[in-house]
Amino acid sequence: MTNSPIKQTPHLAPAIAAQSDHQLRSPKSNRGLRKLQSAHQLSSNYAALNSPSLISQQRQQQQRNTSSAHSNQAPQIPPLPALSSHHRTRSNSDAVVPNAPGNAAATKRAAASKKIAPNQNPREELEGLVRQGPQGDVPAELSRLRHLVLCEGLYADSDGMSQIRIYVWLILLNAPAISTDSYLDLIRRGASPAYSKIRNDTFRTLATNPLFKRRVSEASLIRLLNAVAWKLHDAKVEKLTEPTMVNAANERGSPELQHASPIIKHAQGPPTTTATDGSEAGGTEPGIYVQGMNVLCAPFLYAARSEAEAFVAFHGFITKECPGYVRGAMDGVHRGLALVDKCLAIVDPKLSSYLQSKHMKAELYAFASVLTMCACTPPLPEVLQLWDFLFAYGPHLNILCICAQLVIMRETLLTSPSPTKLLRSFPPLQAKLIVEITVSNLRKIPADIYEELVHHAE
Question: What are the backbone angles phi and psi of residue 163, rounded to the nearest 5°?
């Protein structure tokens, strides 16, 4: 048992005593004095309150008189009845009492209870992996988690809500934990340089989806995108302000002089990227917001149980998995569109030739699907199920998922004289069928093309 805070700080005792004395002398302490007197009387009359009743005392007196007539021994006074104490019985758990006998055995039982049974239900096994963490080899456990996501899927209701989906995503994305205060600090900074562009996009984010509108407010979407914009802005500023050394001298002098002189730095001109909102940034410079990030962010907010969870998952996703999608030039998206044409020509040459004959390149019909990882195509529960697969085996497989959607539409497209109208909006997602076709087509992709798939969003 730990000592009380007062015992641990004896120098506070005089102050407390003086404070108590002052309170007793104050005219407002009469009620407190009465309470103290009542408590004193209650403690002094404890024996009387717990003594036997009057009838019991008379019966005991008669028994003592009878016994004194037969014996000269002093009568024995029966003890006072003990107060009945109600204790909650200990639950049948594996809780271990420190320094108690049998502690090692209890610890072994607790550890054994956490192990996954060989014939356990896949759903329980998946939840156990998420809640308890890996019990052995981490890569093997991650491989098992991916396999369960692919074969069994995450349990969800009709609205696509799952208790563990956001945690599975955070594990698969290797997103670090973040405190809520860190997220709130970004919110308190106010409007970011991209705030006006964010406000122009958020009101139309999945505007026709009642599930999303019922669960996620526009204010939450604005806060999260604005916080991510601040985070990307800080990283961009930090990168631009890092001191760089020129390896060779030029017409402006030695590398040391170029590094030390602000005049020469100014003479070299401003950075190639001057846009404050990041949407007009070009080349390899990272932006802080591009159109379409609002739709890409929506499933994270829908699946997460807090904005902080959605923030860390979304920020980790766009900075690690697809940074090329959120640059000002969107070079990763354009590379992905070119790969849609390449992969479709491999998995379905006839359909690819027909679309090419109609001058239907992927950049005309698949831009939104590439940028948003198919989040622009309803229904939302199917999007979440498709994202489970993409996060488990790599978001680069979204290119093959788009090809799979075209394969599903194959007969309709081949018989249509104008496939442009059909491809203006893709049919509703069928996540399970799309994943099956994607896994089947994956065997047809050559190694060099697959390498391009893996690295196209960097």
Answer: -70, -25
Cβ atoms within 10 Å, residue 5: 8
Express each pLDDT in 222-281 by its tens digit. 999 999 999 999 998 988 887 655 455 455 444 444 444 443 333 344 443 334 344 444
Query: What is the b/e burial string over 333-351, where b = at least 16 CB atoms within 10 angstroms of the residue's CB?
Result: bbbbbebbbbbbbebbeeb
Q: Which of 169, 145, 98 is nearest to 312 (CA)?
A: 169
Classify burial at 238, counting beta carbons within 10 Å of its beta carbon; exposed 0-12, middle 13-18, buried 19 or more.
exposed
Place of tokens 């991209």: 194
At residue 14, the pLDDT reads 41
DSSP 3-state of 445: coil
- Closest listed residue to residue 319, CA positions, set 458, 225, 425: 458
Note whether 403 and 432 are within 8 A (CB). Answer: no
- Stated as kind and residue range, the H or E segment containing 431 is helix 431-442
Residue 260: the pLDDT is 41
State the CB neighbour count (10 A cutoff) for residue 288.
28
Q: Cis peptide before 379, with omega less than 30 degrees from 0?
A: yes
- Confidence class for position 98, pLDDT limits 50, 70, 90: very low
State the DSSP H helix or E strand holding residue 237, giving kind and residue range, or none if neither: helix 218-240
Residue 355: how many other CB atoms lie within 10 Å = 24
Cα radius of gyration rounded to whole Å, the chain = 36
Q: Nearest to residue 437, comparing CAs of 408, 399, 394, 395?
A: 408
Looking at per-residue confidence, does 25 or 214 come out higher?
214
Q: Report the alpha-carbon distance of residue 439 to residue 403 in Å, rounded.
A: 12
* Amino acid sitting at position 428: P
CA–CA gap between residue 194 and residue 83 (Å, rounded): 70
359 dihedral zone (left: phi>0; alpha: psi -120 to 50; beta): left
| CA pair distance 372, 378, nearest whole angstrom | 12
Q: What is the pLDDT of residue 285?
A: 56
What average pLDDT is seen over the chain? Answer: 77
The predicted pLDDT at position 64 comes to 64
* Secondary structure element (H or E) that encloses residue 96, with its range: none
Which structure tokens are listed for 161?
């809500």
CA 236, CA 328: separation in Å to the nearest integer? 13
Residue 61 banded pLDDT, cuts 50, 70, 90 = low
Residue 115 has pLDDT above 60, yes or no: no
- At 134 the pLDDT is 85
Whether 400 and 344 have beta carbons less than 8 Å apart is answered as: no
Residue 456 · residue 353 · CB < 8 Å:
no
Q: What is the pLDDT, as a whole number, of residue 62?
A: 59
